[in-house]
UniProtKB/TrEMBL annotation:
Gene3D superfamilies: Aldehyde oxidase/xanthine dehydrogenase, a/b hammerhead (3.90.1170.50), Aldehyde oxidase/xanthine dehydrogenase, molybdopterin binding domain (3.30.365.10). Coiled coil: none annotated. PANTHER family: XANTHINE DEHYDROGENASE, XANTHINE DEHYDROGENASE SUBUNIT D-RELATED. Residues 1-39 are annotated as: Disordered. Pfam families: Ald_Xan_dh_C, MoCoBD_1, MoCoBD_2. Residues 7-18 have a biased composition (Low complexity). SUPFAM superfamilies: CO dehydrogenase molybdoprotein N-domain-like (SSF54665), Molybdenum cofactor-binding domain (SSF56003). InterPro entries: Ald_Oxase/Xan_DH_a/b, Ald_Oxase/Xan_DH_a/b_sf, Ald_Oxase/xanthine_DH-like, AldOxase/xan_DH_MoCoBD1, AldOxase/xan_DH_MoCoBD2, AldOxase/xan_DH_Mopterin-bd_sf. Residues 46-152 form the Aldehyde oxidase/xanthine dehydrogenase a/b hammerhead domain. This is Xanthine dehydrogenase family protein molybdopterin-binding subunit.
Length: 776
């Protein structure tokens, strides 16, 4: 079996422009503020980085899962006899073979490991098979005879309120009524809008895979690309009827994650088969199984009414938000809280009345995906701001500037914005950025057409639009979530090791952990240990948690080791440790009397310390949607320039100018990469990514039918300003970087298309027919 570690040895960085570095004779730059590359970058580029699909073990069996072809049906019978009797088949498990809790789920344990009486969505697991060859396992799964009584699926979330209960817990997962201010207030200018946001898939780059290995003590080890290993361990232990200490989850290489990386049900199936057979069992999901098994972004229906005065100042916002959770609750309650809380956007709104619902349907399950809740409402409230600007005859950027939020203002939840909120500064930065040159209206410049290099259309039909959007996200968990992470830092010789169960999902945490230790202890060679559940929990890898909470835990542990290192020297020279400093591997005193190296001070000793980081507590929203629900906020402004063929409806995004509130730049190159990736992901949601269903069935569960942006689709992304106004309650003062551009960029693209066509653009992704200009 193969694990992975970010820290394989010392890494020499080539400084980027603007980075802190010295001349050729200087030591390699390290510490915070430097573009330190990832230690695993060479292995990934050379194709030798170990992912879950690469795992192997002696005596390996292969698993396959039988999934429902229907979105709604009663299960009358399941006959596994033919599958069990096939040569090479070692085990078949169904609902009857689950020894512990039969339900699981990220937020609410309402999802069965295997459906047993009813099927609630297309692709729901019915049974799993272990065999000596993957083809045998798939054939055996197909040989399981299931008799269904097919039912009419409930696929319209608006009908879920009156439909028969699809689940024992009912169809309504959560309702949040937010009341803020005076409901009788009416503005001089009123605009209304209806908005629909489609179903976006996380579409993980690498195959979803896992390996379960039985242990001599009757437990099991699960090797998989988990983003929340301790939660997965607890779910698995409850399912297997085992104590948590007899289940170990080992995190393998994660090939990027924009959501919960793995379908937890896959891990449970593997563990059950390993325990049943006494052999290691592996499953590498096909792309179709991934589309059917994991959660997607919530499709959302939004109705808005904005009130403003004659000067364009917002007076009141009214909204209804309906989120389609699919068959199971997952993290829908959390997503709805974000949607309702941020329904007015980063604007000052003295009166707000928002109604939000998350409901069950027979559609594919919805769950955590970067910027959940905030992305859907951003597309709607920014559409409303464009409508207000048009109705009042104002510049779209100017009307936004008249209403932007600032530190000290109130959110509609009643919470005061105490963190830096430089929204006006961000918007002015993108507004003042020079616009790109207009394309030449000649046949030789066909590559500039929205249809692409070989696109149809005429240059004379292309119109350029400039649009704006402001977005916001919350950091860490919300509504009373106990955010805590634990880290250990060990120093032996000239090498430091970090042990923290924070999963590296592509966010750069492992690189950040190395930089923190380098900065604090002056040690160049820092290793980050592989992650497993034998370590204390660090929580989920989402909402920028690990930059803040896990990075904070690493910093505290490193400072404790620093104190251990400096105390003997301070005592010897009769001074406090505060009068000593560590720079570039050297320890010096304030007066220059003491000067030695870290290696000499260690003198062969091994030092270590463990620390926790826990941010200040939050509280749940009350029955009126009020409460201090969020630890902190991050903001972004994007200006989009798009060319639209108003006859064909084809769209080419020319440029995205981004200004972002980042708190503090910890790794310049890594930060820019995260922002660019977030903008590109948002571009996909704006123009192409839509997991289409027909009567609850996914129409094309593959990358042929589900279009995603590639490097050829990415526009020129210009990061025009990074505002470094440190959040005093955050470790290092930094804010998460990747979620807020995902939230903001779809709204900016829609705004640019509105400007080019004069059409309302109320649906994402934007359909070509919606971008065809109305006849003049």
């Amino acid at each position: 079996m193969t694990g992975t570690s970010e820290g394989a040895g010392a890494v020499t960085a080539t400084p980027a422009a603007g980075d802190r570095s010295g001349g050729p004779a200087d030591p390699p730059p390290h510490g915070l503020g430097v573009s330190l590359p990832s230690a695993d970058a060479p292995a990934k580029t050379e194709g030798v980085f170990p992912y879950a699909s690469d795992l192997w073990a002696e005596g390996l069996l292969w698993a396959a899962v039988l999934r429902s072809p229907y979105p709604s049906a009663r299960i009358l019978s399941v006959d596994t006899k033919q599958a069990v009797e096939m040569p090479g088949v070692r085990a078949v498990v169904t609902h009857a073979d689950v020894p512990g809790d039969a339900g699981h789920g990220r937020g609410v344990p309402d999802r069965p490991v295997f459906a047993h009486d009813v099927v609630r969505h297309h692709g729901e697991p019915i049974a799993a098979v272990a065999a000596d060859h993957p083809d045998t396992a798939r054939l055996a799964a197909a040989a399981i005879a299931v008799e269904y009584d097919v039912l009419e699926p409930v696929t319209d979330p608006q009908l879920a309120f009156e439909a028969e209960p699809l689940h024992p817990d009912g169809n309504l997962i959560r309702h949040i009524p937010l009341h803020f201010g005076d409901p009788e207030v009416v503005g001089e200018t009123i605009v209304e809008g209806l908005y629909r946001i489609g179903r976006q898939d996380p579409a993980p780059i690498g195959a979803e895979a896992g390996l379960a290995v039985p242990r001599p003590d009757g437990g099991v080890e699960i090797y998989t690309a988990s983003t929340d290993p301790h939660t997965d361990r607890d779910l698995a232990a409850a399912c297997f009827g085992l104590e948590p200490e007899r289940v170990r989850v080992v995190v393998t290489g994660v090939p990027g994650a924009t959501a919960d990386r793995e379908d937890p049900g896959m891990q449970l199936s593997l563990g059950l088969l390993a325990l049943r057979t006494g052999c290691p069992v592996k499953l590498a999901a096909t792309r179709e199984e991934s589309f059917l098994g994991h959660a997607h972004r919530h499709p959302t229906l939004l109705r808005y009414r904005h009130h403003a005065d004659a000067e364009g100042k917002l007076v009141k916002v009214e909204a209804q938000i309906l989120m389609d959770a699919g068959a199971y609750a997952d993290t829908s309650a959390e997503a709805l809280a974000a949607a309702v809380s941020f329904a007015c956007g980063p604007y000052v709104v003295p009166h707000a009345f928002i109604e939000g619902w998350a409901v069950r349907t027979n559609n594919p399950p919805s769950g955590h995906l970067r910027g959940e809740g905030a992305m859907q409402v951003c597309a709607a409230y920014e559409g409303q701001m464009d409508k207000l600007a048009a109705k009042l005859g104002m510049d779209p950027a100017e009307i936004r500037l008249r209403n932007v939020l600032a530190t000290g203002d109130l959110l509609p939840t009643g919470q005061t914005v105490t963190c830096p909120a430089p929204v006006a500064e961000l918007l002015r930065a993108v507004k003042d950025e020079p616009l790109p040159e207009l394309p030449k209206d000649t046949p030789e410049e066909d590559w500039l057409l929205p249809g692409g290099l070989e696109g149809a259309g005429e240059p004379s039909a292309v119109r350029r639009g400039v649009g704006y959007a402001l977005g916001m996200v919350h950091m860490l968990g919300a509504e009373g979530t106990d955010e805590v992470s634990t880290a250990t830092v060990k120093v032996s010789g000239s090498v430091a090791t970090v042990l923290c169960a924070a999963v590296e999902t592509g966010s750069g945490f492992s690189t950040l952990a190395r930089q923190i230790v380098q900065e604090t202890l002056g040690i160049d060679e820092v290793h980050v240990a592989p992650v497993d559940t034998d370590q204390p929990s660090a929580g989920r890898a989402c909402h920028g948690r690990h930059t803040w909470v896990s990075g904070g835990a690493v910093e505290r542990a490193a400072k404790m080791v620093r104190t251990q290192l400096l105390q003997p020297l301070a005592h010897k020279f009769g001074m406090s440790t505060e009068l000593l400093q560590i720079n570039d591997g050297k320890i010096t005193s304030y007066d220059g009397v003491l000067s030695t190296t870290v290696a000499e001070a260690l003198d062969g000793k091994e030092l270590w310390a463990t620390a926790q980081c826990r941010p200040h507590p939050t509280e749940p929203l009350d029955e009126s949607g009020q409460g201090d629900a969020f630890v902190g906020l991050a903001f972004c402004a994007i200006r989009c320039v798009a060319d639209v063929d108003i006859e064909l409806g084809t769209i080419r995004v020319v440029e995205m100018s981004v200004a972002q509130d980042v708190g503090r730049v910890l790794n310049p190159r890594q930060l820019r990469a995260r922002i660019e990736a977030g903008v590109t992901q948002g571009l996909g949601a704006a123009l192409m990514e839509n997991l289409r269903t027909t009567r609850g069935q996914i129409r094309h569960p593959d990358l042929t039918g589900y279009a995603m942006p590639t490097a050829l689709d990415a526009p020129d992304i210009r990061i025009v300003k990074l505002v470094e106004e440190r959040d005093v309650v955050a470790p290092f003062g930094a804010k998460p970087a990747s979620a807020v551009p995902v939230v903001t960029s779809p709204a900016a693209v829609a705004s640019a298309v509105r400007a080019a066509t004069g059409r309302p653009i109320g649906r994402l992704p934007i359909r070509p027919q919606a971008a065809v200009a109305q006849q003049q």
